[in-house]
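Sequence design from tokenized structure. All designs in this work follow the same two-part layout: the structure record, then the generated sequence. An example of the structure record is given first.
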């Protein structure tokens, strides 16, 4: 009788562990979502830093950029959950030219900001798509890339 009782206890314990594991994995896999909500991204790079959309004029918009120069990207967004992440930028023309990731502290709230974009000295002349997203490590099983934002540009020098 005692071995059967021990087997029942172990079986019950095993079932509890499996159910708990499935609940955690299910939450990590299906419930955790992208914590950011990107509301507006200006379609071109800017030569000047701006604090809101009304300051953007055609004379500060650029599509032709120079290597080694700094430009600005205007974005309006909200972060709904404090999750650290990284801003990932890459220049794509068939070949991907990756940039170093920039840490994002993930403060909760809504912002209207200009972010710097540095054009690498080593980037060859040509037409590119600048792809920007925020990569969040939500939990040990789930990495989420926020909505990818694309700006078309031409490197001229």
């Amino acid at each position: 009788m005692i071995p059967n009782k021990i087997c029942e206890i172990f079986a019950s314990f095993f079932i509890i562990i499996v159910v708990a594991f499935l609940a955690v994995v299910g939450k990590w896999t299906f419930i955790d979502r992208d914590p950011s909500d990107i509301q507006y991204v200006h379609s071109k790079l800017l030569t000047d830093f701006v604090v809101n959309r009304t300051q953007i004029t055609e004379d500060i918009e650029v599509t032709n950029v120079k290597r080694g120069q700094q430009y600005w990207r205007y974005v309006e967004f909200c972060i709904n959950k404090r999750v650290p992440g990284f801003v990932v930028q890459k220049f794509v023309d068939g070949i991907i030219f990756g940039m170093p990731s920039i840490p994002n502290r993930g403060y909760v709230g809504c912002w209207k900001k200009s972010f710097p974009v540095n054009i690498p000295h080593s980037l060859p002349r040509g037409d590119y798509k600048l792809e920007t997203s925020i990569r969040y490590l939500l939990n040990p099983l789930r990495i989420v890339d926020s909505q990818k934002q694309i700006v078309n540009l031409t490197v001229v020098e």
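The mean pLDDT is 83. We note this feature because it recurs in several other targets discussed in the main text.
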